[in-house]
Amino acid sequence: MKQEYIFIGPPGSGKGTQTKMLSKDYNLPHIDTGSLLREEVASGSDEGKLANSYMEKGQLVPIELVSKIIKNRLLKQDCNNGFILDGYPRSLEQAYALDEILKEVNNNCEFVLKVFYFEVSQDKLVERLVNRRSCSVCGAIYNLKTMKLKDTEKCEKCGGKLIRRDDDTEEVAVKRFETYFNQTAPLIELYDKRNCLIKLDASLPIEEIYKNLTGEIKEYVHS
Length: 223
Ligand code: AMP
What we know:
Layout: E1 2-8, H1 15-26, E2 30-32, H2 33-43, H3 46-55, H4 63-74, E3 82-86, H5 92-106, E4 111-119, H6 122-130, E5 132-135, E6 141-143, E7 162-163, H7 170-184, H8 186-193, E8 197-201, H9 206-222
Parallel strand pairs: 1-3, 1-4, 2-3, 4-8
Antiparallel strand pairs: 5-6, 5-7
Helix pairs in contact: 1-9, 2-3, 4-5
The chain binds adenosine monophosphate.
């Protein structure tokens, strides 16, 4: 059965860390619209320039561009057994667009779709974001406050340079929260009504969240 997992949560709730672990252990592609958009920006294309004008303000990139990127990605062969969506959909409009994309992508195959919601209090989040660093080579994520790194500029896994994302400043982080609460939070109700929402306590340590997450997944996959 095809496994399709969607992750929703405010910026800094730890979705990225959990979804990357899940992707590796379950051999499902990790599809993160933020990274796909940053790649587009780095390519210097007109679409990348357009995306960047929204990203630097902490606003959502227009739906036409995001839907195109997601559809192209979900049609790739490595998604045949399922996928993990991290950071998409982020609005009701995108959720309805995804319904249409999935009709095409799933094309009569059997699938399970579950939506994981990462719950965490807002005061923890800004602190997590401003202390977040990621490896420019392998993408590993670090928190300077909770992880005692010997060298705060060097990845402990591959030696790559650690970077702070341009939008992980306090000012942009606050705007990203506003966007989240206005546009993304309504998705929780939508997926709850569809009986596919699972809430996870994202204030717990990484290993515990992962145990809860994989515990849930085992239930669906075996039922
Ligand atoms: P993230 O890396 O998930 O924090 O996303 C960084 C930025 O990319 C966001 O603040 C948005 O500007 C943009 N972005 C990411 N995902 C989406 C999406 N699903 N829809 C629209 N914009 C997005």
